[in-house]
Amino acid sequence: MNKKTIHALAGLALACSLAPVAAAQDVKPEVAIRYRQAILRAQLWNVLPMAAMVKGDKPFNKEQFLLRATYLDQLAAMAWEGFTPGSDQGAPTRAKPEIWKDMAKFTQHANALQAATPKLVAAARVGTLEAVKGPFGEVTKACDSCHDDFRSK
Asked: Do 48 and 71 form a contact (C-beta atoms < 8 A)?
């Protein structure tokens, strides 16, 4: 391959990798709100069965727990791009205005969840209830801390 072809392919790869980010920032506020709410609901969908197992309300099933933990880990990085500038309005939302006033703190909460979920997956691979209790507590603490600061009741 010649240098022109290599540079063209590199440019195309860069443009393709940045397209989703640019597209996410150009959406209407109501679309961003619906997107992030859908991801957060999917997170809850996966947390609830794990919580029931940790609390003893449901028998521990290592395969199901690992599946839910893996899904949650994948979802943990997704919702945050839906908190675009201007998406504090445009559709019903429980997001507090403080998110856009203190994005650094909000990002810290997002990072805490993203740091906790891989640990939960690793613990779930061990396959015991005792192994997942601590890491699951870390995940719920990350969720609760963010909700306390940035979500209206």
From this structure: no
The domain 28-150 belongs to what CATH superfamily? Cytochrome c/b562 (1.20.120.10)
Q: Which residues of 29-46 are buried (b: 16+ CB within 10 A; e: fewer)?
A: bebbbbbbbebbebbeeb
- Under 8 Å between Cβ of 87 and 103: no
Q: What's the whole-model pTM score?
A: 0.82
Query: Which residue type, as a one-letter code, is found at position 115?
Result: A
- Which mean pLDDT values do the consecutive 10-residue runs of the chain (153 residues) have? 46 41 71 97 98 98 98 97 94 95 96 98 98 98 96 93
> Is 57 in a helix, a strand, or coil?
coil
Domain boundaries, the chain: 28-150
Residues in the chain, total: 153
The gap from C-alpha 45 to its chain's centroid, in whole angstroms, comes to 13
d(CA 133, CA 41): 22
73 to 1, 17, 129: CA distances (angstroms): 39, 21, 18
